[in-house]
Each structure stands twice: as structure tokens, then as C-alpha cells.
Design brief:
- Helices cover 7% and strands 49% of the residues.
- With 995 residues, the chain is mainly beta.
- The two termini are 59 Å apart.
Length: 995
Amino acid sequence: MRGKLLRFLGVCFLMLIVGSSAFAQNKVISGKVTDATSGSPLPGVSISATGTTVGTTSDVEGNYKLNVPETAQSLTFSFIGYQSKKVDLTGATTINTTLSQSNSTLEEVVVVSVGYGTLDKKEVSSAITHVSGKDLLPVSANNPLMSLQGKVAGLTITNTASGDPNSSPNVQLRGASSRSAGLGPLYVINGVPGGNIDNINQNDIESIDVLKGGAAAAIYGTRGGNGVIIITTKKGSSQSRLFYDGYASFDYVTNRLENLSPEEFVEKRVKGNQGQDYGARTNWLDEVTNSPAFSQKHTVQLSGGSSRTSYFASADYRNADGIDLRAHKKEYGARINISHATEDNTFVATLSVAPRYMNVSNADQGNFNNALTLNPTYPIFDTTGRYNYINTGFFSNNPVENGKMIKSDADIKEMDINGSLKFNILKNLSTMITISQISRSARNMNFRPSTLSSIVHSGRVNQTNFASQEQQENDQKNVEWTGNYSLDFNKHHIKALGGYGYTLYNYKQFYAQNYDFPFDVFLWNNLGSGLYNGGAAGQGQSAVGSTQNGSTLIAFFGRVNYDFDNRYILTASLRHEGSSKFGANNKWGNFPAVSGAWRISEEGFFKDALPWVDELKIRADYGITGNQDFGNYISLILYGSAGYFPFNGTQYQVYGPSQNVNRDLKWEKAMNFNAGVDFSILKNRLSGSIDYYIRRNVDLLGGYDVPLPSNFQSTTFANVGTMKNYGIEATLNGAIIKQTDFSYNTSLAIAYNRNKFISFSNSLYKGGTFQPVAGLPAPGSPGPIQRLEEGRTIGEFYTWKSAGVNEQGALLVYKKDGTIIPANQAAEDDKQYVGNGLPKFTASMNHAFRYKRFDLNVFLRGAFGYKIFNTPAFYLGTAASQTDANVLKSAYDPSSKYSKLTSPTTQYRASDYFLEPGSFVKIDNVAMGYTQPLRTKYLKSVRFYAAGRNLKTFTSYTGGDPDLVQINGLTPGVNTSLNYYPATLQVILGLQATF
């Protein structure tokens, strides 16, 4: 063993000597690149030492400088739109050259991130969608993924409160895949799995790659079951660049639910003995709305470097208001990417640091609904000038007072750090180690003053003002070691990857609260001054709380890519992964994948027969992925407080098992099959792809009833259920017009997805054949209105089937035997399946126009073939709604079917009477810009742009914007909360400048 070690060290020493020798033998070549016709300098030309990895680009004056190894024999000059040129090295240290324009534009090489590496798009054999940063939508949003909305077929991104600057979108790929574990994809940022998606400035994104096929996602094992989204941020180059982007945005409330005006309320409700007139005339919705809500964002980017060192630095500032009285967000972020290589490129080191600080005031998601339902004859203030005390209606509070007096703030700090060191052992052999840390610290603060009208009116002497603080800390540490080997011989090309990964997760939380502070001005900053804790009136254990938990993930993985003559492509991978979350009997799992592709267009017989086909590739892949997005200690026995036990006159706190052990607990498993075709014709004028997929999810997690004894608790968390998703996705891109001064490109993305629950049981754990979901809240007792049932699809509405309305204004429904009765006489057994809330199709279309220096993009998006339960109409849309509460205009609109429901006997009886078609088409984003090149010393170009989001929605749904009703998750097509946050039309005005 000692001899082997000495030999290994000797080889390493020899390699260092050789590297040092090569380092000493470099020479500097400089020169200038100009246009062969006009003689003007060409900036951004790529110059490389042929046969090496050494390269640089020309600066704004066309000048370049390059450290070239002695072994190099020529330089290659290349620039898009110009013919590449190779110049022999003759010993001269100055080489000036000219480039001639190409008759045909050089084909752009699209580099796709595939997880632990990149490939040319032509080499990809799995389902991966690549989106360039320049193709993202211009939006003013809290999360950069909103700029990806509708861009990727099968990826649904929804945000039911886009006017809230602190809201985050819900992201789901190819349908729901779990009952109890997470449904969102894994984010990989700059190669680091588990990246913080909130710590990304949209302007910093170079590209986004969505790994949809199981074979591509399987390299991430237990975290790839819901797909993988890889985000690559911009890197520096040897050409210096300073860039500024700044915009102002305005959010206007649109497509708002309309309730009765004060005058209409008096005419319809008061005179109908369904409300009282308190004398005022208040438009509560206007009073709680901040429209337009103003936001601004500024980004400065600086990049540059040399042939060996490059850097990219970015800083951004955002200040955004919400459309409610309370929502606000101020954030500061930065990102630094540095790369350095030794002169002979033996060692390459990278460092990325991204800090972000956010000061947040959270929206009150229920305040608009409070205003929507409040009697409009109430005044905001009483006769003394204080906020009016309100104790009738749905929610019995003053929404203006709530929005201005109650506080819910947060201070959030995020930091992403990763560094890597790559050792190029040979030209075709390298190894790299990457160390990273992703951390997030949030301090949540809440305060309710003693001056609230509800506190003052009740005459409370304790539990008056209230304050709390909560500290949450999330930390993820990663170490990954990979090796890459490539081999080309004759027409055979092989790329091999092997690696090891270690990830440590840790979560800490501390919470404290108190009441009865001597001064409201303390807010949450002096919890100890409160009087309610301790003594006879003490809260006991509910006043404070803390926890800490964590998990560990270890993986070994490998992948081999093989292609023959750029025609036949085969990829195989395997990940062997273990997690501390899993039970003792299932700590480790294997996640294999295989994919293959045939580039038919490269066959000689095909080229001769169909020369107008540029690319035709058929591919198929199969991979197994997992989902471990559940609690850290669910497989273990946990102990919790079991009350107090008296002994010898003393009360002793006792503990007992609060959770059953499950040694067999493991990850949810997804078996993915995908078949697809990629094509391009007519010199890339028309291109696209079509994919068919089947995903079968097994070992779904859920709580199951178990006997007592031998178990400590009546339920155990176990792997039991089975679910299937299948669908078709298609994308089409067309360069319709390509002229010097005018171009028109269009793209289309369509996705069809269906889902089926197969089983809730296995031989060990028996569950029912169905599970009621989507329970509606009070008032009344509507109960659940959807079912998850074996053999049926997610989103199935299971309610009474409407038979119309009788002369008394009561809802009629069908009994099980087909007879018709009033809804209040129907039994649970009379319910039936009446529709589905899961869209059959989602689609988007983009139109991109360019005329000289003007550019225009029009983006359309829609969802089709599903039903929405009109929750606002169910509670507020009928004349039979709660007394002294305001209602929607539809309650008294003769053209609305809801105005027929006047009898309180069938109020809050859910049926398909409240189901409406949810299909919509939306003019989602329109952006126009003008770019002015400049030939000044300090400024290269400026661009002015304007954009509008959510400009117009075409739909027959009457409950507002159908896009506000969630279609992701297990209960699509229904809002099970009375909370309401209006949709907004967003206008953006911006300026970009390149220095």
C-alpha cells in the first residue's frame, strides 16, 4: 500500500513539473480584427489557439491579447455572421487580420445543461427544454420563475396573488405526483442542487433548462421525482462590459369581483329586510386597495477579465408595494462569479457568492374578502374619529383598521456560496471538487395594538396588545466530487462522468410571544415587558417554542454518453443514494436511467432524399426517480408531552410515544418513460419537438390506520399508493420572415396531461377506495366537494347534481334514483361525479417582431377543458347570503343564474350549479422596445422598453380571473379558502444601457 502511494505521489509531482514547464513556455500574441469590407473594428470576435482551450475575445476597438502555448501552430478567429478564419503562427507576436461576412448566418450552438455537465443540444437523448435568458418574459415579480410562465410545455406556474410583492408561484411539472410529499421540482443553480430560487435576479439568468424526462432527472435520484429546473447565471468574459437595467412598474386592479354599491345595498338588501342602513356610504374595496401599486427595480452588472481570469458582478435593488394596504417589500441583492485558470489551463478555480437581504411587510390575504362582504353603510370611523367597531357580517371586523394597524413583518437574509477547483489531468481527463453552502435566515414579527376597536369595545384588561417573534434558519451544505473522461476515436465519441455527493440539511426555529405590554410603541422589540406570561394567568408552554432538525443525503453517481458518427446516441446513468430520512431497512436506493436517440437526418440516404430537412432525431428514455420531500424524522419513534402525573402531591410532566416507527419507510418512486422527436427544416425556418410520456408513481406516502396495540398511535406514515400521469407535449418554432430590416418569429407550446389514481392500499396497509378532499369552510357546513378515488383522475368534483331552481328559489338536485328534491333534503349517498377541475390542455403562443431598431413581443397563454367551482358565487353571489353582509352584483342581476337562488333553505349546499367552464385565453405579456446604438467613448447603446402583463382575459367564468384559481396540486379548480386577492394589470417602463 505504501509503495502504491509513493508511486501516485511521484506521478503527481511529475505532472506538476510538466505543467510548470508548459507554464514557462507561453508567449503573448496581440493584434486587431477588422471588417474586410469596411475596415471597421470588430468587437466580440472569439480568438482561440487551435487545438487548445486557450482563448479570448476582441475588445470594443477590435484589439486582443492572448497567452499562447509554444505548441500552438495557429489561431482561429470566429464571429457570428462572418466566416471563420485560421491564421498560422509564424513566430510574429503581432497578428492583425480581417474577417469577411458570411453569406449565411453561422448556426448557433445551443448548450444544454443536463445535470453535472452540459451537452450540445444535438447530443441530448432525453426530454429537456432549454430557454435562453433573453427569451424570458419581462415581468415585475418576486420570483424569476414568473418570467418562465407558459414558456415550457408541461410546466405549470401559477400565482394566485401576483399583486402581492411577497407572493411565490406554485410550480408543477407534468401533473401532480404525490399525496403527502412535495410536488415541486428540484432547483439546481450554477450546478448546486437545492438552490434557493428566491435568491436569483432575473437579469442575471443566462439560461434555464427543464429536465422533464426521467432519464435526465434520474441523475439527481431521490430529489428528481418532480422534475429538475437548472438555472445558469451569467459569467464574465475577457471583454469588459458595464450594463444597467432599471424599470418602474404599476399594478392596477383588474377583473375584480363587483359587489353592491352602497346605494344598491340600500335598494336591494335593506329594503328586502336583509340588512341595515347605518347611514354611511363606504366603498370598502376602494378603501383597502392600493391601486396603482408602484414598484421599481435597478440592476447594475459588471463583467470582464482576461484570457485566464473572468468575473461577473451584479447588484440589484427592488422596492415594491402591493395592491393592499400592508404589503411591501424592499430587497438588496448581489452576485459575484469569478473564474481563474492557470496559463496552461491545468487548474481552473471558480467562486460564486450571492447575498440578499429582504425587508418584508406581509399582505393580509383575507382583507379584500372582508371588504367585499362588509355592509357598505358602515362608516370607517365613529363619531369620535376612532376606527368604527364592527361586529356583524361574515368576519366582524374593520378591514381598513386591520390593514393599517396590524403589522406582520419579516427580515430575511440569504446567502449562496459555492466554490470549485478543477484539475485537468489530461486533455480528456479532469476531476473537480465543489463545496457550497445555501443558507436562509428569517425573522418573522407580528404585532396587534391595544387600540384596536375590538379590544377597546370589549373592555379587556388582559390579552390586549400582542407581539411575537420567530427566528427560522435553514442551512444546506454540499460537497461534490466529480470526474470526467472523454475519448474520441474514429467515429466513436465517449463521455464518462463519475461522482460523489454529500449534503447536510439543518433547520432551527425559535418562537416567543406575549401580551399586555405597557406601550404599543415597543412593537415586538420588548417581549419581556409583557405581563401575561407567568402567574395565575400565564400561558405556560404556548408562550415559547423551539426546535431543531436535520437530515443527511449521500450519493454515488455515474453516467456514460456515447455517440457514433453523430448519428446514434446512447446515454446510461445510475445514482446510488442514501438518506437519513428513510427507515432503517431502506436507507439506500438505486436510480437507473437509459436513453437513446437516432439522428436520422445524418444518414446518407436521408440527406439525399430530403435535403430540406436540417435535423430529425427520434429518441426514447426510461428512468427511475424519487421523492424524499417529507419530514426528517417520520420513520422514527418520536416522544412528546403526555400530560402530568401526580405523585406524592407533586405534578410531574411525562412523555410518551407520539409517532409510530416505520423501519420500511422510503422514498416515493417514479418510473418515467418518454418518447419524442426533434426536428428542424428549411434551414431552421421551422423547428420543434413532440413528446409522449408516462409516469407511474408508486410507494406514495400517506397516513394509514393501524391497530392499537401493537402500535403506539392509531396511524402510521407509510409507502402505499400508486398514481399515473400520461400526456403529450409539443413545441413549434417558426422563423416566418427573415429580412435585413424586418423579422417575425413565432413559437407555440401545447401540453395535454391526464392523471389517474390506481390504488390506496397494499397487502400490509389497507386504505379506503377514495379520499374526500377540497373541504369548503364555514359559514354553513358544505363539506368536501372533490374526491381522490381509485381509477379516477385528480380534481374530480363529487357533489350533488343540480336539477335547477324551484319557484321558491330553492336549489333542486337529483337523488341517487334520479328523482328531484330540494338540496337540503339530499343525502351524502346522492352525490355523484359532476366535472373535473384539472385542465386537459395548456397552451401558449409567442409572436416576436423586429423592425430595424424596434422589437415587439406578444405572448398569449391559456388553459382549456376544465371546470371551476365558483366559490365567490357560492358564498356571496345569491340573495340568500348571510344577513347584513354585502353580496356580489350577480345576486340581483336577472341575467345571472345565481340571482334565482333566493331561498335560505338550500344556502351553502354545494352542487354543480356553481361549476363553470374555466377555459381561458389571456393576452399575458406584450413588450415593445427600441434600441439605439451609440458610438461614444462611454456608452455603446441604450434601449427603452415598455411591457404590459395580464392585459386581457377571454373567458366565460364569472368569478373573476380564472388564473387566480389554482390548477396545480391535489384540488385543482377550486379555491377552498374565502381569501381573495384581486388580479392586476401590470405596466412596466424601463431603460437599459450598455457602457
